[in-house]
Amino acid sequence: MYNWIKSRFALSDEGTKTFIKGVFWTTWHYLTLMLPLSFVFLFLKEYMAKMEKPSAEPHNIFIYLLIALVIFLVMYVIYALSYSSTYDSVYLECKKRRITLAEKLRKLPLSFFGKKDLSDLTSTIMADVNSLEMIFSHAVPEIFAVAIMLLICAVALIIYNPLMGIALLWVAPFAGLLIFFSRKMQFKNFKHTYDSGRVISEDIQECLENIQEIKAYCEEESICKTMDEHSKNHEKSQIKGEFSVGVILNGAQVFLKFGLASVLIFGSILLAQNKLSVFDYLVYIVCASTIYSPIYLVLNNMAELFFLDVRLKRFKEMDNMEVQHGTTKFTPKNFDIEFKDVSFFYNEDKQVLKNVSFTAKQGEITALVGPSGSGKTTAAKLAARFWDIQGGTITLGGEDISRIDPETLLKNFSIVFQDVVLFNTSIRDNIRIGKRDATDEEILRAAKLANCDDFVRKLPQGYDTVIGENGDTLSGGERQRISIARAILKDAPIVLLDEATASLDVENESKIQQSISELVQNKTVIIIAHRMRTIANVDKVVVLDKNKVAEVGSPAELKEKGGLFCKMLKLQEVN
Predict the structure, then answer these.
(1) How high is the pLDDT of residue 21?
(2) Residue 431's pLDDT is what?
(3) pLDDT at position 192, please?
(4) Which of 15, 216, 273, 383 is most buried, with most CB under 10 Å away?
(5) If residue 391 lies in a helix (H) or strand (E), which one and from where to where?
(6) 240: helix, coil or strand?
(7) What are the residue ranges of helices labelled H in 210-219?
(8) How far is CA 17 from the centre of its chain?
(9) Helix, strand, coil % (nearest 5) of the chain?
(10) Predicted local distance difference test score (pLDDT) of residue 478
(11) pLDDT of residue 474
């Protein structure tokens, strides 16, 4: 049972234990709800006995008050335990679920994120967990607790009077079967509603990210029309889902009403035949008027459980994703990076690298050049294990990087991407990402080397200026210089530069090249470049073409050879 609950609801070990504890106390909570009814029955029985035998002595009023007080205290204590073991525990488990999801995402390869939309992942972490929080704190424990409580009550009612017990409870199994056999249809409807809602979230995310292009090309009307169609589709799926669930649940509730009718009719027959006392008849009528509400609650929560399955499927998919593992102990003898017959596919139809072999030696600058789409950026990211390759090996200091934990591996890399990413915080904190414990003096030195200091000091708060989402208050060149300062601050033994000076003018590019010259001393450096002048002084050039290595050599050797590299030089008129 323990393992089934853990697997069924995608819970942690601690979450499973607290869930079972919650069901236990919730069951007692619902059982204690029968105490006031039992108290009424006790009073009613004595009152009727007094009517039959006027000479009988009734209990003192203080006895009833004492019993009522004890019932109140018992119910209060059990309800407090039930609340603590369900709500508090569920909130804690959902907190852990979010952390677990974040940790999972942190260890997944970039190939996973290439297949997922940002709004999709955000919705999973936030909206889905919120929905699970609500369902787990209300519906799921109640399903188990009420089911157990009803089973106990059913056994007691049948034992007390088998005929009346059957008359009261025969409708419950049929109502349950009605919900159970409709689960596939309900799951399908919930899944369609869930997916159509995701489409709208993705539409909104896409519009916000591409608002500049939408306005520039006057696509507002077209985009709004598409979003309107998706919204109407989501509305229809919601109406269809709610209607189908409503019909099934109301059908089950109507069916339950036949139980009350059967108790009244069958009880009247037994009462007329003197096979049932008036008191027992009243007991079963009262039970019939109360017991169907928790039964209906179970049936309603079963529908919630089908809705929960749609979200649980998402979590299980992410839990089953293969993460990148490896040793956290890594002491390479050097920082040479070697590609040996490396092949890589983004998917089955798109091979990016095929049997690529080259070595980027420590103390040298290796440039990756080639036509657009030849795999230059991919090769650099594979060296840092952003993805795992499908063929060959990549070694760092003679050790296979597929056996090294990605976070351990990346401690040895300083990377400047072509697409700069900055955070909505101060310039100082954006640079400090390169080295969390860096002093202000170290940050200032890195900023000066990256030629940031001049423009930063002109800002209102200097290095404490908040630069907006992804640095939207800065120019492209200023953003890239901050990214370079971040890499300089990290001072890792391996440097990857992906078009690091692409957004700079000629004057600033020359200054940055001087800073980079200091950054790369005695380090393994891989530069990805389209501008041939940026690699004039590199030690080695690796020319990629059609997913393979076309040429390898120094700039002078390749120019003399007259191959693809020479043609690229002539196209850019570099002498």
Answers:
(1) 78
(2) 92
(3) 81
(4) 383
(5) strand 391-396
(6) helix
(7) 211-216
(8) 23
(9) 65, 10, 25
(10) 83
(11) 85
Find tokens 């609950």 and name the residue.
Answer: 5
416-474: per-residue pLDDT in tens? 887 788 888 899 999 999 888 899 999 999 898 888 888 898 888 899 999 887 777 88
Q: What is the pLDDT of residue 338?
A: 94
For residue 339, what are the β-bridge partners? Answer: 358, 394
**CB-based contacts of 569: which residues, under 8 Å, 6+ apart?**
532, 559
- Cα separation, 23 vs 82, in Å, equals 8
Kindly state the tokens that stand for 216.
């520039």
- In three state form, how does the secondary structure of 55-113 look? CCCCCCHHHHHHHHHHHHHHHHHHHHHHHHHHHHHHHHHHHHHHHHHHHHHHHCCHHHH
Task: Using DSSP bridges, classify how beta strands 399-400 and 524-528 pair: parallel, antiparallel or unpaired.
Answer: unpaired
**What Å distances lie between residue 30 and 17, 66, 143, 198, CA to CA?**
20, 22, 11, 37
Convert the pLDDT of each residue in 277-313 to its tens digit.
887 888 888 788 777 777 777 777 776 777 677 677 7
Which residue bears the tokens 């509305």?
235
Task: Calculate the dihedral angle through the C-alpha atoms of 84, 90, 91, 93, rounding to the nearest 10 degrees.
Answer: 130
Low-confidence ranges of the chain (pLDDT < 70): 7-10, 44-60, 88-89, 111-127, 130-139, 303, 307, 310, 348, 500-516, 518-519, 573-575
Per-residue CA distances from 120 to 152, 194, 202, 230 (Å): 44, 11, 7, 16
Q: Which residue has the tokens 């919601």?
A: 238
Structure tokens at 567: 């043609």
Six-digit token string for 80? 């407090």
Written as one string, the DSSP assignment of 349-362 is TEEEEEEEEEEE-T
User: Residue 55's pLDDT is what?
Assistant: 61
Q: Long-range contacts for 399-402 (Cβ within 8 Å, ≥24 apart)? A: 399/330, 399/332, 401/326, 402/326
The CA distance from 384 to 391, in Å, is 16
Q: For position 68, what pLDDT does the model report?
A: 82
How many residues can be counted in the chain?
Answer: 575
Say which residues have a Cβ less than 8 Å from residue 146's Cβ, sequence separation at least 6: 30, 294, 295, 297, 298, 301
Half-sphere exposure of 476 (CA within 13 A, CB side): 11
306 with 187: CB under 8 angstroms?
yes
Per-residue model confidence (pLDDT) at position 52: 61
Res 542: pLDDT:
92
Q: How far is the C-alpha of 517 from the C-alpha of 495, rounded, in Å?
A: 11
Domains of the chain: 2-319 (1.20.1560.10), 337-571 (3.40.50.300)
Distance, CA of 307 to CA of 135 (rounded, Å): 9
Q: Distance between CA 395 and CA 439 in Å, rounded? A: 34
